[in-house]
Write a structure and sequence with these properties.
single chain, alpha/beta, 4-stranded parallel β-sheet, 52% helix
Length: 665
């Protein structure tokens, strides 16, 4: 409702500016007055016009207020002038509450296909805590984009790129073949043995990956030979159709299945799993190379350190003509003929935008979710009924900030080829790393030196074997939550208590990953995450449980409590006593405004903050008004409706964050 009134108000102001002053402003700022008594909207438009019209801001504000008052805009009670020229807008509280109760809201979204790529874990070991930030950010953002009963949304496809021919997978293959002496048959037998002994393949590879990383440098005399083994293995993976590539495919696919299981525990799902092996075997890069050569983006360097390489001008480099070799140029194809990560990524993104004529993956079924199928790429024929996932109108790549340079070079390549619209609709959804607090590391069983205990956070490293596996972290969070749920709710069955504990643990983890803006380093601490106090997921979940308890004890439902608003006298909302109730309704009306802001800025943290503030506002209302003890029937009905609308919007806000509301805490 709030966004609808805001849109109508801004549209009318733009019309007045054009009619009265022959002025058009690209954007009108909207602020919130410092006190609710001053109104619900504040517009500094008069200050923006003062210099252009050569008038005092207050004089302009007076003229605008007169025009707006005469327009009798629906939902607006008054327009007043404040200070040196602010326009303070007061809403019709009773009318607004009735619209909020009946679920009138602004739509968010529109036409076009949005492609969100996230997670993209190398399939060589278990997912760890750092991967979770990527996956939770991406999953939350796709939830913001998708249509539902509350908003229109966009058509969305979620992709999880699988680098199954990269150096990390090659390292695991080196470990299997050269440290453990496995053949292709031996690897098949190993997978069977692990399954029969309930040993997780991704956990097994976690330790093997750390061991092989140390093996490369353990013997200085063997360093060159072992690095060559790694390089030869990598080449075999890229070439395909050999035993080494088959071993890699077996391991990568088995680990990938485990990754999907891990993410499904957090309600994270995918539509399509494009694999690098198909980008190579289907010759996406060959088509991309020809395009880049034809457009003059790619060229052969004939001298200098990059002699023999195909290179492109690095993103952000000077436009001045370079005399001699460009030593800062980005290598796309090495002199030995292998394609760099950026080269393959350029080809992949040309496909995403439908800019590789005649090129597409084959699609086969890989994993069934309750609501849909997750497809995986193949070089062969597609399964019957297979969709296609390219030709996006806009893409969002959730990739950590260390990949800023590669991402910028992909965008530069698109611009260089003349695909400026595609480049403009390419968003690098970057984020910073996740670390551990020293306390968390010790609680998880790691030995932390006295020096490290003084640090604000400790970086994790899968290569060094120091990190928290995602499943282990989730198991520990569930166990900690269950210890509390068991004490508080002994009357529930074991299965019910486990289900509630899982909802709390997932909510704690997801909210902790989302509450910080993307470009903030997170120091994770599971005790802080699980706290029922402060800015946490459980704090919001508990507010929802509290609201639900009020309705349950009053023997009413959310729907009936909100329906009662239509027949109530709402004049109390304009009094000092009713202001806390009105502030709660006003906060509840802003969800679509926050959704729009999150999408525009690619920043889910704003919604996390909103959910927390909404819970705070409800708790403030709860402590001010003793709903269950209220004897006045009409007032009690309004109080119940306030609790109901707060519950409805808190549940919705958490839903977009991928967090469920448990029945009890």
């Amino acid at each position: 409702m709030y966004r609808i009134v805001q849109q109508q108000l801004l549209a009318r102001i733009q019309a007045i500016l054009l009619e009265k002053y022959d002025v058009t402003l690209a954007q009108l700022a909207v602020e919130q007055p410092p006190q609710i008594a001053m109104g619900e909207l504040a517009l500094p438009v008069a200050f923006e016009l003062a210099k252009r019209l050569r008038k005092a801001p207050r004089a302009i504000a007076t003229e605008l207020a007169t025009e707006l008052s005469a327009a009798n805009l629906e939902g607006i009670a008054s327009v007043e002038i404040a200070g040196a020229g602010y326009l303070n807008v007061k809403l019709d509280r009773a009318a607004a509450v009735r619209k909020i109760a009946s679920d009138v809201h602004a739509n968010v979204g529109g036409p076009g296909f949005r492609l969100v790529e996230h997670t993209s874990i190398n399939p060589n070991k278990a997912a760890h805590i750092g991967h979770l930030r990527n996956a939770i950010l991406g999953d939350t953002f796709q939830r913001l984009l998708r249509p539902d009963s509350y908003k229109t949304g966009y058509e969305v496809g979620v992709q999880n790129y699988i680098d199954n021919t990269g150096v990390q997978v090659a390292d695991v293959v080196v470990g299997l073949v050269h440290l453990e002496g496995k053949t292709l048959l031996g690897v098949r037998e190993l997978l069977t043995e692990l399954m029969e002994s309930n040993t997780l393949i991704d956990y097994y590879c976690w330790g093997l990956y750390a061991r092989v990383s140390q093996w490369y440098t353990a013997d200085s005399e063997q360093l060159a030979a072992r690095k060559q083994i790694r390089l030869d293995t990598l080449h075999a993976l890229e070439e395909g159709n050999n035993e080494t590539a088959e071993i890699a495919d077996l391991i990568a696919t088995a680990v990938l299945r485990r990754h999907l299981e891990t993410m499904e525990r957090l309600s994270i799902e995918y539509d399509f799993l494009p694999r690098e092996s198909e980008i190579l075997s289907l010759h996406f890069w060959d088509a991309a190379r020809e395009l880049m050569l034809a457009k003059g983006v790619l060229y052969l360097e004939t001298e200098g350190k990059n002699k023999g390489c195909l290179v492109m001008k690095r993103a952000g480099s000077s436009d001045e003509e370079v005399t001699g070799p460009d030593e800062d140029a980005k290598v796309i194809v090495r002199s030995n003929g292998t394609v760099t990560y950026v080269g393959k990524d350029i080809a992949y993104h040309l496909w995403k935008f439908g800019l590789l004529p005649g090129k597409d993956f084959g699609y086969v079924r890989f994993h069934e979710y309750p609501s849909h199928c997750c497809w995986i790429s193949t070089a062969g024929a597609s399964d019957e009924g297979a969709p296609t996932f390219g030709k996006a109108d806009a893409i969002y790549n959730v990739i950590d900030s260390r990949q800023n340079d590669p991402q910028n070079n992909v965008i530069a390549a698109l611009r260089g080829m003349g695909y400026t619209e595609a480049a403009d609709r390419y968003t690098h959804f970057s984020y910073e790393m996740v670390a551990l607090t020293p306390r968390c590391a010790m609680d998880l069983g790691y030995t932390v030196s006295e020096e490290d205990q003084k640090k604000s956070y400790l970086e994790v490293s899968g290569r060094k074997g120091f990190g928290v596996k995602a499943d282990d972290l989730l198991d520990k969070l569930i166990a900690a939550a269950k210890a509390q749920v068991d004490v508080r709710n002994p009357e529930l069955t074991e299965a019910e208590r486990l289900s509630i504990s899982t909802q709390i643990a997932v909510g704690a983890l997801r909210y902790f990953m989302l509450r910080f803006t993307r470009n903030t380093v997170i120091a994770f601490d599971f005790k802080d995450a699980l706290s029922f106090e402060g800015e946490t997921g459980p704090y919001i979940q508990y507010a929802i449980v509290r609201a639900a308890n009020i309705l349950r004890k009053s023997d009413t439902t959310e729907e009936s409590a909100l329906a009662a608003i239509a027949d109530l006298d709402l004049s109390v909302l304009s009094t000092e006593e009713g202001t806390v109730m009105w502030e709660t309704w006003l906060a509840c009306s802003k969800l679509t405004l926050l959704l729009e802001q999150c999408i525009a800025t690619a920043e889910p943290a704003y919604l996390a903050k909103y959910a927390f503030q909404l819970a705070q506002q409800f708790n403030n209302f709860y402590h001010r008004h003793h709903v269950l003890n209220e004897t006045d029937a009409a007032k009690k009905a309004l109080l119940l409706a306030t609790a109901a609308v707060a519950k409805r919007e808190m549940v919705r806000a958490l839903g977009y964050l991928g967090i469920e509301a448990p029945p009890v805490m």
